[in-house]
């Protein structure tokens, strides 16, 4: 990314001293550096040299800060890059995911930056996850204090601080011959010395020359590592990317393993060799780090070190109920216990008595069962597949007891355990236990089911001893469960009709009380109790099916006189009083003098009576659009009817007519009856003067001269009424029929609800007249139900045409 490119270019300027003509950036102290003084041309000109750096972005900023650059200036560097247009052909510089690696057999300071690959590894190999993705675990840490064991070499910079009686700082670079040159003192050979050894040698040199006060302790000296050099190291063997790498001198063995991608799928994680000066300096076992966090093998690398990754010798696969399945590499003396330790041990539900090992012989596979006692001695062979099973989903020592017991459930079976001891262990029997019989469900030796019955009374007394076996299921019944569900029912004029659970000594008055008492219209002197007959003489032609008991409770529910003790399944009926009649009402809405709810005064009240009660019609009423809506007999309650009419009263007729969906929803609960009010007023005793029913909705619409055209016309609309205009006129005004129109089925719906269709005789059509507020509706063709004329129908039509032709000829002859 741009930020990394710019930052690395700057650090190269600082670390490798390649900008001799840039006085600002060559300074050892960057405390006074101003970012705005660095030109764009300088950035572009030295970018190519910066491409050889192997430092990451974070390392760059750490070194800039160590040189004294203020954080504010570092932030300016980041923002400055936004205005720098680097050429796209400039080599890509390393970021956190890139490393500097030389090409094969070529290691020098001009090596190009090669992006770090994200290697695809066998993810089941234990330890492979450390090298399968970018991670900061194995990145060199440049912010650590100078290691005391660090070995100096060419291109390292040492910083000598003299303080106390004298004050001086020297920034000295180890040259190719291994010397540092101290001003006014001369050269001093430090190549191959550790930091501590170099400090002692510098201290002795300065004490014997220009700083005599060092011997007396008045002047003191410290030596730190400044700029760090690059070293060349080589990875050989079964690495993901073997080769020679140019890295920082602070790079450790683990850093290098990460850079090369770690061991390949056939490489060893347990016997990695660090070869120095032709001898094996150290053998590294990565498992020590993975399992213990031990970093003793993470040593600093030196120039020309060689890291060799050999082939693995023994690798086994562990699967099944362990905490971490995978492939594990073993050393020659490690056993199965060690494999399980690497895997984190068994899962909680693992079968631990033994494991199954699949081995490879020279010719075929074989299975070996390893018991727990042999885990510490069995040494797995290479390619062994070790499988850990799961425990069985069964119990080794369980019995179960259920039913009328105080503490039902599973229990441990003990040696010689009997049914009597299990009942005692479960807290004993409940009071409602059925004592005559119990059942044990048992499995035979061949797992076939078996049943053992017993008399609970004999078991409790100890006269019947039944020994239990594992997985026995004991069932003890309850008296209540073995009987019918005893109920009595009550219906009619009580507040809460329904079923009530029967209990001993339950009386009629008790049931009426539990049902909420009598309603207002209850007939309390003629209550009927219907009782089952258990011994009916069904063999006779006529036999009694039920016993009916009549009760008189006009004195109420108090006291015990006239009460009846009920039996299971008795049915109680409380009927209405003979002369009790609830009010019936109708609703009036629209253009009337007084709209609202009207209670019917008699069972024969008619429309003309209702008109007199609401006082007639307003001046805007349309006498031809009077309708009566009657509730369909669909079981609606009085409350449902009330809610329906309240909704109707809140919607005007015009709104209802303009919303076909709402109109359909409202009218689905009603039958619409056409009213000829003039005929009813003229002849009150005639059939036009209908008798009103409970829930009738009497509606009178406001006068309107509009005619509605709907259905399969091109422009459904409302058109003003024109006296004498035919139906064809209104259809033409709405654009005419569409292609899907059923022309011959067009109809007119009049304001009072009557419907008329087009009538035909031979070739002649008669259209119905159109009144104000009428609706012309053209239905849609039903394409799925088209049927061809039968032969008989064609013959009949032909006969009609023949007769018509004969009549016409006769008429012309005359």
Would you mind describing this structure in some detail?
The protein has 814 residues and is α+β, with helices and mostly antiparallel strands. Helix content is 21%, strand content 26%. The protein has 20 helices and 39 strands. Helix 1 crosses helix 4. The longest helix is centred in the C-terminal third of the chain and has 23 residues. It starts with a helix and ends with a helix.
**Main sheet, how many strands, which sense, barrel?**
5 strands, mixed
Total strand count, please? Answer: 39
Query: How many angstroms separate the termini?
Result: 111 Å
SS-derived structural category: alpha+beta
Strand content: 25-35%
Radius of gyration: 54 Å
Per DSSP, the total helix count is 20
Low-confidence sequence ranges: 1-27, 45-56, 87-119
Q: Mean pLDDT across all residues, rounded?
A: 79
For the biggest β-sheet, the strand order reads: 9-8-12-10-11
Helix content: 10-25%
Q: What general outline do the C-alpha atoms trace? A: extended
Protein traits:
single chain; 814 residues; alpha+beta; 5-stranded mixed beta sheet; 39 strands; disordered N terminus
Brief summary:
21% of the residues lie in helices and 26% in strands. By secondary structure, it is an alpha+beta fold.
